[in-house]
Every structure is written in structure tokens, then in C-alpha cells.
Specification:
heterodimer; A: mainly alpha; 71% helix; B: 521 residues; alpha+beta; 6-stranded antiparallel sheet; 14% strand
């Protein structure tokens, strides 16, 4: 029973890893915010 | 364990499909997220194929007779190496091994191409996933390796006697590894043709995988020839073994690519020669397909059958289309950038060229010596002397080998004994040359039995071989009655050189065609 649970969990984790780029798309870094720049300055 | 394996096989099939779909969609719509996910799909397929194989290995080693593959190919007394070999004794199991042997090099090459941001990587991920999908569909279409019997038997049917030989442990896995490696240059060549550009990195990977694949294919062919030599299957000639099984055709095509295809980087031939690995893999896949369909005839007979004609026509059309596409898309290749080397490294490169030039000359010499030894062994085989002798215990007979030397063969007695999963009848034969004892050999007649002592197959004759550099003496039991035994004696000059020569040819040839990073590609 434990082996079955570990297998199912392992395969689910693998599926999540494969689909991760689509679910959480990597975005290009957004241009620096003007207000935060002035705060930093 | 079996559950994990079966689940791995099903999810692996889905992942291969996803890898192809996401990669091609990502290429079409220029979406990085899909491209990343497609590549991960291919990596996941490799892992899941490994899980599927480990599941089957576990079932075979634990002797879980509830699985059809275990019950049909093994038995309680089967020695453990053959329990593992049982995996590739069935067409589905062999294709599963081939799928893993393809997935691993393909995943490693994809990782390297992605690390260098090679533009061909996305197409490569898609095309390689398609190939894996094809192989996994082939497994699904055939007998399911995880098929479960309604009532598990107490003992299995046992492995066929002809497969319970050391050749079975070497030849099929080497062949799967070679074909898997040959998939890399084929898929990369097709992707480069589609992209209209061959990058230095792609060429390097094509050449390296082809070189290793060719070397392993050479070893596989030599192992197959040795297997035929020591088993004397239906009196088949061992030099013809690669022709009968068709392995010589991909070997020649891959060898031609290693020798010329990788080196020729400019001009019209550069693009045309990319067809060689494609044709090699098409032929190899046709042979896999033929085996999966149960066509175990020689390739020439296969070609005469309707299925063979269709497969042959597909190979020709595929090869022709690749040549036409390559010429149109790639045309004459311009001189291209040289791999990873910058001008600052030029001194290091020059000294490494000199060093590797020497190594390549040495490797070429080794390969030529190997080829000459193999040729001598084949010539020796053509000059072999075969005869049969009828002997009773204590009798002797004189036979002459191809060198004109006389051998006296003496029947020194028969012994019957149990061994692992068989009852063995061995006939002791004393070999005398010029009145001096040259050795003793004992050809056997093996009756394979279950743990309960019931025969599983017809008794099998297992030859005995006395192997020496000059001549191999092979004795096998042809017939046996209560009083006498009929022995077939083969004198094969230089047979031992074939195996040494084959290994030298594989090693020397691989080093000779090995691409040098920053020099050849």
C-alpha cells in the first residue's frame, strides 16, 4: 500500500514539474517602476 | 512494484505525446513556456520508461508468475541472469528496452542543446518525443508486458533453450543501445534539415552519438556472430548472421556517416550525407517493426512478403524525401563557425590537434588490424572442414583439419547429471593430435525441466568448443541412440580471431571517427 502511495505521489510530482512552466509561465522581467526608483534614489 | 511499472508505462506514453505536442506548439507560436514544458515531458518520459523497466525486472527477479511475461519466459529454477534476459526475450519487452535505450541519449543531448540555447533544441525535443511515442504505441499494440494471468501458475513455462546461452545476455541489450544511440543523429539531422541550418553543436552531437552507436553496433554484431558460432543454430553460418538479421545494413549506413557524413561540412554533399543516419534508423526501425509483427524470417524473405514490400517502399520514400528536402533546405553549406573555441585558445587547440592526430592514426591502425583479423576469420570459416562420426564408448575416429593435420577423437564415456533447470547428458571426447593429448571437450544434450521435473522443451544439443588461435574444434551431438552417438565435428580455422578483431574494430573505429570539440565540429 505504501509503495502504491509513493508511486502515485511521485508520478503526480513529476506531472506537476512537467506542467509547471505552463501553469506558472516565466515572464520577461518588467521594466523598473518609476516610483520605486525615485524612492531608492 | 508491477503497479508502479504499469503506471509508469501509461503515464510515459502520455508524457511522450505531451512532449511532442508542447514542443511543436511552442515552436509554432514561439511560446517559451510550452517549449520548456515539452522538454520536461521528454525528460519525464525517460524517467517513466526506467520505472516501467525496473517494475518488470522486479517482477522477473521475484518470479511473480501472475504476470504473463514472467510465467511464459521463466521458471523457478531459471538462473538469475536469464531471468533478467527474459525481459528482452519477448517482442514487447525488447521494444521497451529499445525505448529506454533511445530516451536516455536523446534526453542527454537535449539537455546539452538547451544549455547552449541551440535553436534546433525545440524541434529536437518534439521529434524525439514523437519517436518515443511511436515506440511506446508499438509496445501497447503488441502483447502487454504487464498483462496479468487470471490464475497464476505454480511454475513458469521456462525460457526457450536456444535463448539460455551467454549470447542472449550480450547481443540484444547491445543492439538496443546501438539503435537508441543511432536515433540521435537521425532525429537531429531531420531537425537541422527542417530548420535549414546545421549548427556546430548539432553536428558534434550527431557525430559523437553516431560514433558510439556504431562502436556498440559493431560489438552487438560480433556478439551475435559468436552466439551463432557457439550454438550452431540449424547449421547457420556465423559470418552470415548480421545479414540474416539485417543488422549489417544500419551498420554500413551509420559507418558511412561516421566516415564521411560528419567530416564533409561544406558543399552539396554536406546536406545529402545527412540522409545516412536517417536511412540507418529507418532500416533499424523496420527491423524492430518486423520483429514486433512476428516476422522472424531473413530480411530478403521479409522483403518478398507484402508487409516487407510496404516497409521497403516506406524506407525508400523516406530516404528519397530526406535527400530532396536536405538539398532544398540546406543546399551547399557555407563554412561555419568552429564550435566552442575562441582565438585565444588557438595554441591549446593546435597542440591538441597534433595529439589527437596521433591518437587517430593509432586508432585507425587498430581498426585496420581488427578488420584484417575479422577477414581472416571469415576466410577460415569458408575453408572449414565438417564431418560426422558415429562413436560408442571407447571408439575413436581420425579426422583431418583444413591445415591437413590429423586429429584422433576418442569417446571417453558418457555422464548424466542434473544442473540448475536441466538434465544434462555429456559425452566426453578426448582430442589427440600427433599422438599427444590436445584437450577434452564434452558436447551436451540438455533436457530442460520444471522444478517438478517435467520437461519444458525438446532436448537441445549444446556444442562444446575448443578455441585456439589456430583452429576451433566444435563438437555437437547430432543424434543419439542407446548404443552409439553421432557427433558432428567442425574445424574452423582462425575463428577466435573474429571476436578479438571485432572488438579491435569497434574500439579503433570509434576512436578514429570520434569528433574533436572545436576542431571537427
Amino acid at each position: 500500500m505504501t509503495a502504491v502511495a509513493v508511486t502515485v505521489l511521485g508520478i503526480l510530482a513529476l506531472l506537476a514539474w512537467v506542467l509547471d512552466p505552463v501553469i506558472r509561465p516565466t515572464r520577461a522581467p518588467s521594466p523598473p517602476d518609476a516610483s520605486s526608483q525615485s524612492e531608492a534614489g | 512494484m508491477s503497479f508502479a511499472g504499469e503506471l509508469g508505462l501509461w503515464v510515459g506514453l502520455l508524457m511522450a505525446g505531451w512532449g511532442a505536442l508542447a514542443s511543436f506548439a511552442g515552436q509554432h507560436w514561439r511560446r517559451l513556456d510550452l517549449q520548456d514544458s515539452g522538454a520536461r515531458g521528454l525528460y519525464a518520459t525517460s524517467v517513466l520508461l526506467a520505472v516501467a523497466i525496473v517494475g518488470l525486472f522486479g517482477a522477473l527477479l521475484r518470479q511473480d508468475f501472475s504476470l504473463t511475461i514472467v510465467a511464459a519466459t521463466t521458471g523457478l529454477d531459471l538462473p538469475w541472469p536469464y531471468r533478467i534476459a527474459a525481459l528482452w526475450s519477448t517482442p514487447s519487452g525488447a521494444t521497451l528496452c529499445l525505448a529506454l535505450a533511445t530516451a536516455v541519449p536523446v534526453a542527454l543531448v537535449l539537455r546539452s542543446l538547451r544549455a547552449r540555447r541551440d535553436p534546433v533544441a525545440v524541434r529536437f525535443a518534439g521529434a524525439a518525443s514523437l519517436l518515443l511515442l511511436f515506440l511506446m504505441l508499438l509496445i501497447r499494440a503488441g502483447a502487454d508486458p504487464y498483462d496479468i494471468l487470471p490464475v497464476p501458475p505454480v511454475d513458469g513455462a521456462g525460457m526457450h533453450p536456444s535463448l539460455q546461452r551467454p549470447g542472449m545476455l550480450l547481443h540484444p541489450p547491445l543492439l538496443a543501445m546501438a539503435v537508441g544511440l543511432a536515433a540521435v543523429p537521425c532525429v537531429l539531422a531531420l531537425c537541422c534539415i527542417a530548420a535549414g541550418h546545421v549548427s556546430a553543436r548539432s553536428r558534434f552531437h550527431m557525430r559523437r552519438s553516431a560514433a558510439i552507436g556504431w562502436g556498440i553496433l559493431t560489438l552487438a554484431i560480433v556478439a551475435g556472430m559468436w552466439w551463432t558460432h557457439v550454438t550452431r543454430t540449424a547449421g547457420r553460418s556465423w559470418p552470415l548472421d548480421p545479414v540474416v538479421h539485417g543488422t549489417v545494413f544500419p551498420w554500413l549506413l551509420l559507418g558511412a556517416f561516421c566516415a564521411w557524413g560528419g567530416r564533409t561540412r561544406t558543399g552539396r554533399w554536406a546536406s545529402t550525407l545527412l540522409v545516412l543516419p536517417v536511412a540507418a534508423l529507418l532500416v533499424a526501425m523496420a527491423l524492430v517493426l518486423a520483429t514486433q509483427l512476428g516476422l522472424t524470417l531473413a530480411p530478403f524473405e521479409r522483403l518478398a512478403s507484402p508487409v516487407g514490400l510496404v516497409i521497403g517502399a516506406l524506407i525508400l520514400v523516406g530516404t528519397g524525401a530526406t535527400v530532396a528536402l536536405a538539398r532544398e533546405r540546406l543546399g551547399a553549406q557555407p563554412a561555419e563557425e568552429r564550435g566552442d573555441t575562441s582565438s585565444a585558445d588557438s595554441d591549446v587547440v593546435t597542440s591538441s590537434i597534433v595529439r589527437s592526430q596521433r591518437a587517430r592514426q593509432l586508432a585507425a591502425g587498430i581498426a585496420v588490424v581488427g578488420a584484417v583479423l575479422l577477414g581472416a576469420a571469415i576466410a577460415g570459416h569458408l575453408a572449414r572442414a565438417t564431418s560426422t562420426i558415429d562413436l560408442r564408448p571407447g571408439d575413436s575416429a581420425v579426422r583431418t583439419d583444413p591445415f591437413g593435420r590429423e586429429w584422433r577423437i576418442v569417446h571417453e564415456g558418457t555422464s548424466v547429471f542434473p544442473q540448475a533447470n536441466r538434465r544434462v547428458l555429456a559425452v566426453g571426447l578426448g582430442l589427440f593430435r600427433d599422438a599427444r593429448r590436445a584437450g577434452t571437450i564434452a558436447p551436451q544434450l540438455r533436457e530442460y525441466v520444471t522444478a517438478q521435473g517435467e520437461p519444458t522443451h525438446e532436448p537441445a544439443s549444446v556444442p562444446a568448443v575448443r578455441s585456439r588461435p589456430g583452429v576451433d574444434v566444435v563438437a555437437s551431438i547430432a543424434e543419439r541412440s542407446a548404443e552409439r552417438v553421432r557427433i558432428r565435428i567442425d574445424f574452423e580455422p582462425f575463428a577466435l580471431w573474429a571476436w578479438i578483431g571485432g572488438v579491435l574494430l569497434a574500439a579503433g573505429g570509434t576512436i578514429y571517427v570520434w569528433p574533436r570539440r572545436g576542431v571537427d565540429a
